[in-house]
Amino acid sequence: MKNISKYSLLLTLGLVGLFSNACKEEFLDRPPIGVFSEEALRTKAGVQGMLIAAYTGLNGAMYGSGSSAGADVSTFSNWVFGSLTSDDAQKGADVGGSRSNIERYEIAADNTKLDDRWRFVYDGIARCNDVLRVAPTVKDFTETELKNILGQARTLRAIYYFHGTIVFGRMPWVDEKTTDYLQPNERVLWKEMEEDAKFGYDNLPETFPELGRVNKWVAGVMLAKLYVFQKKWADAKSLLDVIIASGKTTRGVKYALLPKYHDNFRIATQGTSADSESVLDAQYSVNDNGRGYNGGLGDNLNFPHGGLPTQPGGCCGYHQPSQDLVNAYQTDANGLPLLDNHNKTEVKSDEGVESNQPFTPHQGPLDPRLDWTIGRRGIPFLDWGPHPGKAWIRDQNYAGPFSPKKNVYYKADEGVLTEGTSRQISANNVRIIRFAEVILMAAETEAELGNLEKAREYVNQIRRRAANPDGFVKMPDGKPAANYVIQEYKEPWTDKTMALKAIRFERRLELGMEGQRFFDLVRWGIAKEVLNNYLAYEVTKRANLKGAVFRDHNVLFPVPQRQIDATKRPDGTPTLTQNPGY
Q: What residue spans carry the region label Disordered (predicted)?
């Protein structure tokens, strides 16, 4: 839950429109109401307020109007661009709309979701640049304090640029020194992001008293992630080794996996002294006079549909897990995943079965993470009772029979950790980076370098936590809710191809529905193969996917046409170019 917000300074970073019948010329020369000048902010308090404004983008609702419009693509849960586009999830809800075009890989440059994402990224970058431009002019900062401020702003800037780059690829580099925005400087910004994250790693302290701030280790993990995306395996290994050995959370606790998998997604655990797995969260809070805009706006559509007080959120049936993802959680008799044929058999669903009709859930062996990731008929849905199936689904024919679960709050939290004006907005943080991902990046790095047994050791850490019976979903009588069978990899890994396959599959199981899958498939170079195979399978369940095809150019999304038009030079020539294929 949000701690850093109590230090917030309300900043309006845009012009306020004034309408008046006044006709005197001097009226037009008045400073705009509600806007701080840089001169007024050139103090310690002013710079700290600007820095907090840069952090506010992490909650996906930082536009000056306070509007939640566009929050679904301005959230670091990445469910629209990173999940609906993958084999993890359906768009859900009902037929049509801008998200359907994204899901079907038929997105055009005028899709409003593209412009929302672009503006979100550059709004965050602009706020970081404000800090980086003004902070060095404040004489009251000590050298250490200034490095601290600059380190946070540059690390945040790297994070914003990264979440633009994985969607659009080439982007214009705009920093605190940029004065001409019409120069053609678009490119893939790996070098610039690396330099920002490296500055943070070299200059930030290991801990902060406030939750939510980026520290040395957050910057280091971000830098390691940049290395992994570029396949700089030696650089990634040297950094990840240090982070895993020495990294500390904001509270000074050494990073470690939480004993129970689901505690990552439970509000009561987040931000406590026991929360050792959070590397960087989007810190959410509710009922704090923020009109709901400090809460989880970006995922407020992703609850079971129906509007009943006996179900969480009550709207709107988006981001529904695919049958393909559900099948991936099957295990064999040895408790290992079905790496090559997870769709050969299916996990039983209640599709077409009314909620008042009898249904017996799947009886085969399953990875226990399934029922903390996905809501399915007959299995306890947190403390809301058994998932009733069709009664909580907007349209099974279109969206399938399953519900998302990681973003959902407990019934016991309603009204306290949900916003009073809308129970779809909760204080359930988005885990932008958690330590499990750090371990999986280390496993992938070791395998790519040929250190297969070290890679197996890392993967087994993840599976060992998942196998903790104290962390299984339980029935009211205390018995496991399903036939959970999961084991570590006991046989030595001697084949690199097999090892990488196991690691990639483990990422899917561990990070399911967390908005990372599409970007993983793209960076591995297997998106076209995997996603067309997925479409061929899933279309037998979801007729709305008929005719959808993933093509080579779909590894990137189009540059928003609105941005191309808005950044033309005075002579009409564009400064932005469209991605190939669009």
A: 351-370, 563-582
